[in-house]
Write a sequence for this structure.
C-alpha cells in the first residue's frame, strides 16, 4: 500500500514558517513585508522566534514538573533536579523546532512586520 501526501497551496514558504494564512486567510501583509526584508534578517527572525518559544515552553514544562514526587526520572531524589531541568530544556527545544504551539509564528510575523516598517521609513 502506498502512502499519499496531501499538498496544500502556499503563497510563500520558508523552512519553518509559512505565509499561507492567518486565521484561515492568506496573509498578504506578511507576504509584502517579506519582500522588503532580506533573507538573512528573515533567518535571524526565525531563530529568535523559535528560541523565544523554546524559552516559554521550558518555563511551562518546568512548572508542570516542579511538584512531582516519587521515584523515577521525575522523582524527588538528590540528582533529579538537575536532570529534570536538562530534560525539560530539551523537550522545549524539540517542541519549538517541531512547530511548537504557535507562539513562534506570531513572534516571527511581528518581527518581520517591524523590520519592514523600519526599512520603509528609513
Amino acid at each position: 500500500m502506498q502512502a499519499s501526501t496531501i499538498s496544500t497551496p502556499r503563497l510563500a514558504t520558508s523552512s519553518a514558517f509559512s505565509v499561507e494564512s492567518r486565521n484561515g486567510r492568506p496573509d498578504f501583509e506578511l507576504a509584502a513585508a517579506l519582500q522588503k526584508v532580506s533573507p538573512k534578517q528573515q533567518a535571524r527572525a526565525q531563530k529568535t522566534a523559535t528560541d523565544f518559544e523554546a524559552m516559554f515552553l521550558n518555563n511551562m514544562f518546568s512548572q508542570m514538573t516542579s511538584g512531582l514526587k516519587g521515584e523515577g526520572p521525575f522523582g524527588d531524589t538528590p540528582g533529579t533536579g538537575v536532570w529534570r531541568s536538562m530534560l525539560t530544556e530539551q523537550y522545549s527545544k524539540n517542541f519549538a523546532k517541531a512547530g511548537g504551539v504557535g507562539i513562534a509564528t506570531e513572534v516571527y510575523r511581528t518581527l518581520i512586520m517591524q523590520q519592514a516598517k523600519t526599512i520603509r521609513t528609513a
